[in-house]
Amino acid sequence: MSAGVPPHDDAAGRRRALLLCNPKARNGGGAIDAVRDALRAGGHDLIEPEPERDSCAVIRRHAHDVDLVILGGGDGTMNAAAPALVETGLPLGILPLGTANDLARSLGLPLDPVAAAELITTAAAQPVDLGWVNGHYFFNVASIGFSADLAGGLTAESKKKWGTVGYAIAAFRVLRRVRPFTVTIEHDGKRERVTTIQASVGNGRHYGGGMTVEETATVDDGKLDFYSLEVKHWWRLLALLPALRRGTHGRAEDVRAFQTTEVVLSTRKPRAVNTDGELTTHTPAHFKVFPKILRIYAPDAARRPGTANRLSPR
User: Fold this and answer.
1) Contact, 14 vs 45, CB < 8 A?
2) pTM for the predicted model, two decimal places
3) Which of 30, 104, 216, 278 could potentially form a cystine with 109 if both were Cys, beta carbons 3.0 to 4.6 Å apart?
4) Main-chain phi, psi angles of 202, to 5 degrees
5) Residue 176: CB atoms within 10 Å
């Protein structure tokens, strides 16, 4: 099935939805019955296969039988399903059941699962961008350095138990042993070699349970937002924290930041790349943006976080 295939709407205007909820998500066990009721009341007939580890295989298997896919989980759940969503052209509905739900925040979705289900039944499917690194799609951000070390040390159990507080606990532990490294950055005909503790490439707006990639970033701007934290001491990150939350860190003297559509990061030894909270590849890392490659049921683009900042004079 592709984006050009007519929907399966019946005479009553109902749509067939493939509903996949991650039972391991932090809020995966709550409000599901109410979510089902809201979706059915909004005109959706639900197909719910037995849970499988490979969500892409499930989506591909049911692609010709449904009009949309509804995923319940966190950012990792969305990330894992991205290849099949792109391949089939099916629009996506999101039930934010994870810890941080950064993609949902970037899209301006309700964080209450029932309210999110109701929005799926009334909102239009909006085109959004995807980032890509070494063959792996990402919605929010991909990083090497501190964030990748943090992802490696943050267990599913701690996220489920502590929620976003778990990020802070793990970050403090990793921060004490963080060490600068050298990375070569190639973009837009330039080649730079810098020393950093983290290099990040953002496609969306939010990441890491409350951080902002860049104050004007949106999920549909056709750009990647790059930044490198070239700080000399780990405690400098504490001073940068308010700016990292607002997305204004690019103004600091020890932060390198720019927008691009393609960038390559190389290191002397392979370093893990964190994509939306999962370690999926390693350097050398080739990043691209694929503009408006996917459709997600969400509020109109003008109502998303960051849009007002992007349109306002700087």
Assistant:
1) yes
2) 0.86
3) 104
4) -100, 140
5) 8
- Condensed to tens digits (0 to 9), the pLDDT of residues 22-36 reads 876 655 556 799 999
3-state DSSP call for residue 302? Answer: helix
Q: Is residue 115 a contact partner of residue 122, using CB atoms and an 8 Å limit?
A: no
**Residue 246 DSSP symbol:** H
On whether the CB atoms of residues 154 and 167 are closer than 8 A, the answer is yes
Joined together, the tokens standing for residue 67 give 């009009």
Alpha helices in the chain (DSSP H): 32-41, 55-62, 75-88, 102-107, 113-122, 146-153, 156-162, 164-175, 236-246, 307-311
Q: What φ, ψ does residue 263 adopt, rounded to 5°? A: -155, 145
Q: What is the pLDDT of residues 40-66, one digit of tens each?
A: 999 999 999 988 889 999 999 999 999
**Cβ-count burial of 311 within 10 angstroms (0-12 exposed, 13-18 middle, 19+ buried)?**
exposed
Tens digit of each residue's pLDDT (9 = 90 or more) over 185-216: 999 999 999 999 999 999 999 998 789 999 99
CB 28 within 8 A of CB 77: no
Strand, helix or coil for residue 165: helix
pLDDT at 183: 98
12 alpha carbon, distance to own chain's centre: 35
